[in-house]
Amino acid sequence: MILRRRLRIALRNARISLGESQKDVAEALDWSPSKLLRIEAGSSNISTVDLRSLLAHYNITSSERVEELVTMARFARRQLFNSYSDVLKTQYFTYLQYETAATVIRSFQPLLIPGPLQTREYAESILKLAHRPFDTEEVIDRRLQARMERQEVLLKDDGPELFFILDEAALSRHIGGKDVMLRQLEHLLIFDGKPEVHIQVLPFGRGEHSGLFGSFIVLEFPAPEDEPIAFLEGHLDDVILREDPEDVALYMEKFWSLEGLASPAGETSTAVLATMDRIRRS
């Protein structure tokens, strides 16, 4: 997905440099205006033949540059989680493609344990709670499997560096019942000391904070030309993409602000153990 993003930005910039509108280009190539609109929006792949025609129209004739963009287009069509595209929302599927290309992921969660840190039974409880009336057991099971495979991708040895901030409410709410929640909290303890995973807890005692309005994730990529992206999460794996640099900067600043309010990562195990003790005594 990051390659598709890079390609569409390059094509849009080439058109703008030529001083042409999408309608002008579509008419010149005998395309429908919606075809070019989808390509530049990243909602549609572009074939090698169409790409070469487009590049010729944009006067991009350097064989090296042409082959670079053609290769980019070919690899952009190769996506992880394709086998789950029929059970995942389009926005969430798009998010997963970006996520797998990120080298740094910053996530704030006010109410739930983040997906990459969830146990299978905790994740299953969430997915069953959030399902739509027409979803079958098979659909829910496949979404669960997609979530587990997502964890494998993110938590492998050469995976991205992960920063999580959890409001204390995410630790305290009994998702799936007391036993499921206790096992989930115990699972969090295994990440203590892992250099690539950083978990902080934002205590109730800090009072109101900017994260109360919802969860969000900021992705950072290795190439300098690939600007960070922010995603806002909602019900049923809804995500809203934010690419505008000013918007993304606001969420990055919000994350750093919450990071400053949260307890240090070294104190997370203590907070988790204390919560487990309260649950056992409740």
From TrEMBL:
Pfam families: DUF5753 (PF19054), HTH_31 (PF13560). One of its GO terms (molecular function) is DNA binding. Residues 11-65 form the HTH cro/C1-type domain. This is Transcriptional regulator. It comes from Phytohabitans flavus.
